[in-house]
Amino acid sequence: MDDLPHISPLNHAEYMRFALSLAQQSPPKPSNFRVGAVLVDEGANRILSTGSTLELPGNTHAEQCALQKYSAANNVPEEEVGTVLPAQAVLYTTMEPCQKRSAGNVPCVERILKTLSGRNKGIKTVYIGVKEPDTFVAANAGQSKLEQAGIVCVHVPGLEEEILRTATAGHRTP
Questions:
Q1: Is 24:36 a contact under the CB 8 Å cutoff?
Q2: Largest CA distance in the chain
Q3: What is the pTM of this model?
Q4: Does the chain have fewer CB atoms within 10 Å around its N or its C terminus?
Q5: Is 68 helix (H, G, I), strand (E, B) or coil?
Q6: Which of 55, 63, 96, 132 is the catalytic position?
Q7: Rounded to an integer, what distance in angstroms lies between the CA atom of residue 57 and that of residue 64?
Q8: Whether pLDDT at 45 is above 60
Q9: Do residues 123 and 151 lie in contact, with contact meaning Cβ atoms separated by under 8 Å?
Q10: Exposure pattern of 95-119 as b/e (b: 16+ CB <10 Å)?
Q11: What 3-state class would DSSP assign to 160?
Q12: 63: annotated active-site residue
């Protein structure tokens, strides 16, 4: 994690651009979106962990990878990652977190919601580049499920076209 960029505090566009650079490291496949995620301590303006689609073994999503890497670095099971997150933990993700997984994995929304049981109440804000297209799961309600649980979801504008182009690289076009 030594080669992480320095990003000015609250520079949401730059954090999203960094998440996009992570998404671009994911392999293009017809069965996945290429997504990047950055877990940040907003109070200290410090990157805690990063993730990209398929970075870890299995059919892993970016948010899942970021949370699993952070929990491993802090020697806690992923289900308990909320116990070691700082009070101002936020998540940047190029695409709305999934609320349903077709491959049997725990959806990213549930992973984020599990962080709320931690001593500092987990991830309180999720910054999102684009809504999830209906390609694999119709009408993803990830954002709404997070908001119903009290997590603030903020759209970070400006990179939508590049995010979608990156996310769908490798997809077959009709």
A1: yes
A2: 49
A3: 0.94
A4: C
A5: helix
A6: 63
A7: 11
A8: yes
A9: yes
A10: bbbbbbbeeeeebbbbbbbbbbebe
A11: helix
A12: yes
